[in-house]
């Protein structure tokens, strides 16, 4: 039996959440009064702290988490947002101290948690390869040995001696991932970094990760994309609200996770609007999709979507600047992460989108929605065509498609049988020859 290379016992991580008290206006008398109260507390209990602070509460990101990972295992950590996945990897990486429990790790650990951490904007790409490699634990000899491969993988040869502050965000993350991906550890911890760059580079990253996993290294991988998880991993750990829900083979664990998502009360199933960001909390310095409205062709809200319906998805977004020829992306995928449809304004040059500073909206129109009944994941994005993402959220909300049986056959198309209810006609000639 393989020796455990990672052992986690009764792990817990607690955070103190502070709630800001609403004080829209503070007068001089309030400052003096609070100072007198603080002095009184010092005289009574020897400290200026309040005995009770209702503005603080405890939050356990992880609680009583225990598991073992054997040498050579490829483990996928799955769970909804806020389940504790990233917290777990930060503790395993020794970035964060646990509140309770203990971990025992045997072997050299490398972490791909936030690509680009440690890059210096004033240094060139060449200099940052050495700097970032050293920060990630690579020696100078090791960096030199991998230097040409890193540069070729990142596809930044022409800009190698340019300060990275002049790189596009796509070039920046490509170089950062290339450095991190060429580490040679015994244990590799990966947190949702395969979403960097364009689609071609994402596939390249996935291929690199497959090389790592096939080389016998121990890999712990976090992703919301179930297809990537199943492609890379053999063991699954399902976290739910900081607790372990299930550990087992990746197929059974991912199936349980998907079923739980179907059973849970998902918002927007019968709503004509999927809210992504509140207008009042938009950061004016960033691109951001605000909402996706589901409408009839006449512009009225569409409360329910049926197979073969005509439907408009109205994407409302914020742009911090005027931008000519921006690109808006709308995506539909299964709960398992398989992309069914990806629509972009880029190919249709007659519908060029010029972003205006402020709030914008575009309509993605389906004359006939070829989806069987079931739940699907809506994704949205903003981009500069052929260059880089400005914003993306590929789990923005859930679209529920209701069944419609126009053939009156009693067999309305359901996603459990097939996804695309494509209509077709038949030409039948039963007899050929005797």
TrEMBL record:
It comes from the Bacteria. Gene3D superfamilies: abc- transporter (atp binding component) like domain, P-loop containing nucleotide triphosphate hydrolases. GO terms for molecular function: ATP binding. Keywords: ATP-binding, Nucleotide-binding, Transport. InterPro entries: AAA+_ATPase, ABC_transporter-like_ATP-bd, ABC_transpr_TagH-like, Bact_Polysacc_Export_ATP-bd, P-loop_NTPase, Wzt_C. The keyword Transport applies. Residues 42-266 form the ABC transporter domain. Belongs to the ABC transporter superfamily. This is ABC transporter ATP-binding protein. The lineage of its organism: Bacteria, Bacillati, Cyanobacteriota, Cyanophyceae, Desertifilales.
